[in-house]
Every structure is written in C-alpha cells, then in structure tokens.
Amino acid sequence: MRLLPLFFLLLPFIEIAGFVLVGKAIGVLPTLGLVLASAVIGVLLLRAQGLGALARARAEIEADGDPGRQIAHGAMIVVAAILLIIPGFFTDLIGLLLFLPPVRDLAWRRLRGRVFVAGGFRPGSGGAARRGRTIDLDEDDFSREHANSDKPRGPSPWKQIDHD
Fold this sequence. Notes:
Layout: H1 4-26, H2 28-62, H3 68-85, H4 89-98, H5 101-111, H6 144-147
C-alpha cells in the first residue's frame, strides 16, 4: 500500500512503453484496434458480471449470510472494467486478471481484515425480518420527541389500511 503512489506515478510510463512495444510489433492501426476492443470488452464484462455480482450479494443478504465477499467481488469487477476501459495494455492485463474469480478471492482474502462495514452488518439481522411489508414514513410521521413522549398525537396513520 505504501508503494501505491509510486505505482500511479510510474503507470503512464509503463503504458507508453507498452504502446511503443506493441505498436512496433503489430503496427499503429492494430494497436489502436486492440485499445478500442479492450474498452468495449470492459463495458460488456461490467454489464454481464457486475449485475451477476449484485444478484449474488442480494441472495446472500436474503439468506442471512455475510454479503461482504460478494460486495467486494462486485467492487473488484467495477475496478476491472474501468481498468479495461482506460487505454493501456498494463491496465488491461490487471483488469483481465481481476475478472477471474480466483484472483478476486485472493485479493479478498488479503483485504478482508482491512475492510470495515459501516452500519455493522450482522448475519441473521436481515433477510427474514425484511421480507415483510415495508412501511414508508414521511418527515412529519415520526420524530424523536414524539417517540419518547407519553402524550397521544392523534389518530395513527398505521391503523389506516391501504387497499391497493
């Protein structure tokens, strides 16, 4: 992690060297074609795999499991797609590697201890409890002052039944 700023400073030089080497080997137009093709592939993979990762995270939440791994995989898929969309062969290589589930699992195992989920997700705290009816409140339907007060507020909107 300490070398990350140095990596970002060297990245343009690495990419320029890659363009020169590939351009010298296959020519300018095929090189530009590869760059455009990698951007299109990045968009298509993001669409296909990104939606799948979101569906797997949702399924994990509904099963009262920990969605951390699936959310991390989804985030890595987004990063991989961005790396493919950015022109350059080195970023394409890293992006393609991140699309591989074993590489994402390895990255997740290394990063898991450093990730903190705000909101304190706990397995067993969702799923079944959330499957019931959702109640939507307006700003004037609830306030902390009235919630802690013993005074009645008038007719409760909760006793009204909507027949949609």
